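STRUCTURE:
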């Protein structure tokens, strides 16, 4: 729906022909208008945001749906003008345009970047994707009208060189300016929402996750919470046994050491830490002492 909305926006700002002839300037008029470019930049910003949040697990699938920009004009291309080839080419070009943005941004999702670095990445994506954007206008000229590529069309292009140059300059200005501003504002909104919701973006080996930042009171409570030594009882009993091991007969001593090992293994399966290491060392020392005495 998002990409189809872009197509509808371009159709809304398309100049309606005054007669039966549809001029190329009427077809490409939306490319020189602010609002259609704004809607396109919102779709691009959404693609970049999904890439930033999901990396390449879903972003390329989403970007590949960009062919839907041409959905509102499919009937006109295929059934009214008989240009199924241009319909397919146009769909491919729109999909490629969004995939370029996702591809360029995917390498910047696993590291924290400054706003200036984000702007430079957007500028790079805009520069690379603009020729594709310009080709979509050319496809629209021949796909949305019954004109073909013949000598008459080529001579018309030659006579319209000044208008074509002006069209390119205006579209470059709008495409670069609006996209860079909107994508940058998208990141500002993203960071602001995370701040308001008290969440943070965390990059790990498993991917990108969003986690809630613990409050100061929760951190303070965790810091003041007394440390529990789960091995304290076992270690106290082993210490007492170690001091009196010479007063116990061999069979009873072996049985007691076996019980110590069993209790240690039960605790070790649940609790880790320095206490676990200390308890393990104590059991080994008792075994060594047992072997010396018996």
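SEQUENCE:
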């Amino acid at each position: 729906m998002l990409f189809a909305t872009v197509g509808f926006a371009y159709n809304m700002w398309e100049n309606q022909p005054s007669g039966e002839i549809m001029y190329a300037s009427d077809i490409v008029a939306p490319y020189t208008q602010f609002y259609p470019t704004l809607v396109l930049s919102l779709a691009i910003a959404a693609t970049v945001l999904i890439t930033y949040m999901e990396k390449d697990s879903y972003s390329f699938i989403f970007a590949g749906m960009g062919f839907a920009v041409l959905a509102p004009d499919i009937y006109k291309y295929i059934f009214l003008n008989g240009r199924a080839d241009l319909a397919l080419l146009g769909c491919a070009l729109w999909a490629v345009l969004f995939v370029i943005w996702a591809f360029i941004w995917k390498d910047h999702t696993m590291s924290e970047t400054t706003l200036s670095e984000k702007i430079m990445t957007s500028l790079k994506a805009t520069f690379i994707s603009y020729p594709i954007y310009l080709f979509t206008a050319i496809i629209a000229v021949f796909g949305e009208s019954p004109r073909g590529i013949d000598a008459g069309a080529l001579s018309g292009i030659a006579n319209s060189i000044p208008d074509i140059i002006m069209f390119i300059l205006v579209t470059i200005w709008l495409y670069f300016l609006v996209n860079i501003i909107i994508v940058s504002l998208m990141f500002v909104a993203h960071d602001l929402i995370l701040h308001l919701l008290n969440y943070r973006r965390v990059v790990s080996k498993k991917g990108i996750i969003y986690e809630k930042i613990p409050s100061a009171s929760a951190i303070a409570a965790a810091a003041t919470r007394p440390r529990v030594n789960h091995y304290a009882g076992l270690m106290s009993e082993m210490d007492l046994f170690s001091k009196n091991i010479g007063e116990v007969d061999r069979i009873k001593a072996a049985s007691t050491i076996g019980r110590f090992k069993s209790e240690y293994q039960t605790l070790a399966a649940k609790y880790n830490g320095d206490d676990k290491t200390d308890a393990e060392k104590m059991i080994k020392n008792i075994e060594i002492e047992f072997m010396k005495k018996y």
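REMARK: Residues 2-189 form one domain.
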